Amino acid sequence: MFPLVHHPDYTAPLPPGHSFPMDKYGMLLVALEEAGVAHERVAPEPMPREWLEAVHAPDYVAAVLEARVDPERQRRIGFPVTPRVARRSQLSAGGTYLAARLALQRGFAANGAGGSHHALPDTGAGYCVLNDLAIAANRLLEERNARRIMIVDLDVHQGDGTAVILAGRADAFTFSMHAAKNFPVRKARSSRDVELPDGMSDDAYLAALARELPACIDAFRPDLILYQAGVDPHVDDRLGRLALSDEGLSARDRFVMAEAKRAGAPLASVLGGGYARGSAMVVARRHAATIATLGEAHMADRLQKLH
Ligand SMILES: [Zn+2]
């Protein structure tokens, strides 16, 4: 059993017909149940305001928490920042922090939300309001829960916000492997960016990951990995541009867990993007498969050690 961080308020109502699959956060539990994935559910606290302000501009944090984000920023975010959306963003950051704390104790934990990697210091963007990854990493480092944190971002979109917020820090490393031609148009500079051509499928993708990630891990030697495990590199994703199969995504997730174990670093995963055609349940099942794969890969290794 591994800890899964979840809160009922991870889902917040959006205007009718909105294309963001907000229901996937609740459906993730159904999908995990359906697949028989044994886990222990833990509820997060909202991230306290001071920790939001440690990486975001206080004016922007105030606008989010008081649900008065200006129209231009709301356009950039892609949905209205209501009080419920503000609460969800604060809980999601608290959830990533909690998952990391639990991973430090247990080796692996998953947040059933988070991965809001496009949020920048003074604005949200691309369906991201507050950057849970940067907020959690900064707090974990400040509290000395970890000394060197690596963010492994395999969402199909670049983790531009995380890269900008954590740029120049010696205690944080941002690794982003993404579709070169996808959002955002103007890329930021991560510690390591791996840009992939449109239409790349399993074998080439896994080869690129195997070529790039181990060297970064060896050079940086993280004592904690935050894994943005977006499932939008899937071939059927609406906003993808890559062509991974279900098996390809599983192989990706097994590889990342194997690398974390090799480095002796606990791993906390966050959901990230996933925009399936059709029902939100399709994408919830993809996220559930990722979490199940990571949980199994983590346990398999522990069972081997016992023998
Ligand atoms: Zn994405």
Could you explain the architecture of this structure?
With 307 residues, the protein is of the alpha/beta class. It has a single domain (2-306), classed as Histone deacetylase domain (Arginase, Chain A, 3-Layer(aba) Sandwich), CATH 3.40.800. The chain has helices at 24-34, 49-53, 58-65, 71-77, 83-106, 132-142, 160-166, 202-220, 246-263, 280-306, and strands at 2-5, 39-42, 108-111, 149-153, 172-179, 192-196, 224-228, 267-270. The chain has an 8-stranded parallel β-sheet, sandwiched between helices. Helix 9 packs parallel to helix 10 (280-306). It is globular, with a radius of gyration of 17 Å. The two termini are 19 Å apart. The structure holds zinc ion. Zinc ion binds at residues 155-157, 230, 232, 273.
